[in-house]
TrEMBL record:
Cofactor(s) the record lists: Mg(2+)
Organism (species): Streptomyces botrytidirepellens
Protein name as annotated: L-fuconate dehydratase
Keyword Plastid: no
Pfam families per record: MR_MLE_C (PF13378), MR_MLE_N (PF02746)
Domain Mandelate racemase/muconate lactonizing enzyme C-terminal: 212-308
Record InterPro entries: Enolase-like_C_sf, Enolase-like_N, Enolase_C-like, L-fuconate_dehydratase, Mandel_Rmase/mucon_lact_enz_CS, Mandelate_racemase_C, Mandelate_racemase_N_dom, RHMD-like
EC number in record: 4.2.1.68
Length: 444
């Protein structure tokens, strides 16, 4: 029998995981250059997708995934398959608190952890599984994930968080202080969130493969749609970057924020030089100006390009590297990802780290399904952790949402609050069939 973490207490009726099904789902976004940037010119937005089933007899399933961009999605699916022996036959925790042991059991597997540890393909596989288990847990509670987490007591949230390797920056007592400080205003913030929605900024007007006319047209449309910030991909030739920044700034006017994203394209010195050359267009931040692992370099870039901010995090492998980025003073903006690290549990640690260091969280989205997931994390952060949405927003890209049962909805530049139970991670059955690789209708 499979076991995960500490053995669960015996109960009269035990629910066990009976199946973990995986799917290689890919969308041919490269055909129209959606998602194109300086490092990824032809991405096919993809999901290594998992469905968890149990013997509970309630017809509820847990759906999760991690995001990739085409070739290599089959590698991610294989990594999720490698976790199956740890899960099928294991008892599913009756309470959310039990998911802490599940998480630890998956990341601490004595053989698979060698491939990380806690980074890369295997860690993203843990994210897909953990996100599916949280989806199922929230469905059983009858709540959307953001609400399930927000309703937990500080002690419960701390018990879900893995503080290993963080004690020099964040302890359980620190986390309790942060959560207890936010507790008195939770009800009011939740009411405001439901009434107003959460701020969003738009990425999909600025893909690197779009021509100048399309860039100008979509940038103007973003302002008309109520967005107060857009993002533009840079990292092509210096002349192209200057021309495209000029077009975008003229299209949106002086009062709308313009963020720039180099997608890891530059060396440290080059990043400083290129960012300074674009400073005339008043960029709010430069995102991923160099390697995501370049902690010291990112700190140096931040010092050199101020007041332009430095944003990063979508490719940061785990909470330990986030801790070091914060300790080094390398970030003005922290961009956590729902699937890059080990899922909900690890993102709890990252949100708490960001609150401890006073760095705003602007979650990475776009892709396929990331907008659906990270809105829950940002809304939970606003209600129960940071208690603010000042100078922060969630990225939005306006494609592929129609394939989800509970799609992200943005109106007037703000994410509407999800109300359906779960993590909003379930694809429509017809999408699972049509975009299955390589035999789905979209690929045949």
């Amino acid at each position: 029998m499979a076991t995960i973490g500490r053995p669960a207490a015996r109960t009269a009726t035990r629910t066990r995981i009976t199946a973990l099904d995986t799917h290689d789902i890919r969308f041919p976004t490269s055909r129209r250059l959606h998602g194109s940037d300086a490092s990824h010119p032809d991405p096919d937005y993809s999901a290594a997708y998992v469905i968890v089933r149990t013997d509970a007899g309630d017809d509820l399933e847990g759906h999760g995934f991690c995001f990739t961009i085409g070739r290599g999605n089959e590698v991610e699916v294989a990594a999720i398959d490698a976790l199956r022996p740890l899960l099928v036959g294991a008892e599913l925790p009756a309470l959310p608190a039990g998911l802490a042991d599940v998480y630890r059991g998956l990341v601490d597997d004595g053989q698979l952890r060698w491939l990380g540890p806690e980074k890369g393909v295997t860690h993203m596989a843990v994210a897909a599984v953990m996100n599916a288990l949280w989806d199922l847990t929230a469905k059983r509670a009858g709540k959307p994930l953001w609400k399930l987490l927000s309703d937990m007591a500080p002690e419960e949230l701390v018990a879900l968080t893995d503080f290993r390797y963080l004690s020099d920056a964040l302890t359980p007592d620190d986390a309790l202080r942060i959560l207890r400080r936010a507790a008195p205003g939770k009800a009011g913030r939740e009411a405001r969130l439901r009434a107003e929605g959460y701020p969003a900024y738009l990425t999909s007007c600025g893909w690197l493969g779009y021509d100048d006319d399309r860039l100008a047209r979509t940038s103007r449309a973003a302002v008309a749609d109520g967005f107060t910030q857009i993002k533009l991909k840079v990292g092509a030739s210096p002349a192209d970057d200057i021309r495209r920044c000029r077009i975008a700034r003229e299209a949106i006017g002086p009062d709308i924020r313009l963020a720039l994203d180099a997608n890891q394209r530059w060396e440290v010195g080059e990043a400083v030089e290129r960012t300074r050359a674009l400073a005339r267009f008043d960029p709010y931040w430069i995102e991923e100006p160099t390697s995501p692992d370049e902690i010291i370099g990112l700190a140096a870039i931040r010092r050199a390009v101020a007041p332009v901010k430095v944003a990063a995090g979508e490719h940061t492998a785990n909470r330990v590297i986030f801790k070091q980025l914060l300790q080094a003073g390398a970030l003005d903006v922290l961009q956590l990802d729902a699937c890059r690290v080990g899922g909900v549990n690890e993102n709890l640690a990252i949100l708490l780290l960001a609150a401890e260091f006073g760095v705003p969280v602007w979650p990475h989205a776009g892709g396929v399904g990331l907008c659906e997931l990270v809105r829950h994390l940002a809304m939970f952060d606003y209600v129960a952790v940071s208690g603010t949405w000042r100078d922060r927003a969630v990225e939005y890209a306006d494609h592929l949402h129609e394939h989800f049962l509970d799609p992200a909805i943005v109106t007037g530049g703000r994410y509407r609050v999800p109300t359906a139970p779960g993590f909003s991670s379930a694809l429509r059955p017809e999408a699972l069939q049509a975009y299955a690789y390589p035999d789905g209708e979209a690929w045949v």
